[in-house]
């Protein structure tokens, strides 16, 4: 009975980790899209050149 419970617990942990990794991939893709949009749509500064769109 104990080995069966350990296998089920391991399967549950691996399923949870796989789900978390999948969610993190979607978050990374969303951040990349936002960064690319900010890079493309940045405004010009007084000298006519393009400035940084981020503060840091």
How would you explain this protein's 3D organization?
By secondary structure, the chain is mainly α. The chain is built from one helix and no strands. It has one helix at residues 2-40. The protein is rod-shaped and about 70 Å long.
Number of helices: 1
Shape: rod-shaped
> How many strand elements?
0
Tell me, rounded to a whole number, the average pLDDT. Answer: 79
Regions with little confidence, pLDDT below 50 for 5+ residues: none
Distance between the first and last residues' Cα: 56 Å
Question: What's the short story on this structure?
Answer:
Helix content is 70%, strand content 0%.
Secondary structure elements and their pairing?
Blueprint: H1 2-40
What brief labels describe this structure?
56 residues, mainly alpha, 70% helix, 0% strand
């Amino acid at each position: 009975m104990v080995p069966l419970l350990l296998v089920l617990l391991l399967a549950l942990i691996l399923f949870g980790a796989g789900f978390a990794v999948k969610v993190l991939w979607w978050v990374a893709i969303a951040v990349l899209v936002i960064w690319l949009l900010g890079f493309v749509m940045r405004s010009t500064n007084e000298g006519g050149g393009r400035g940084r769109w981020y503060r840091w």
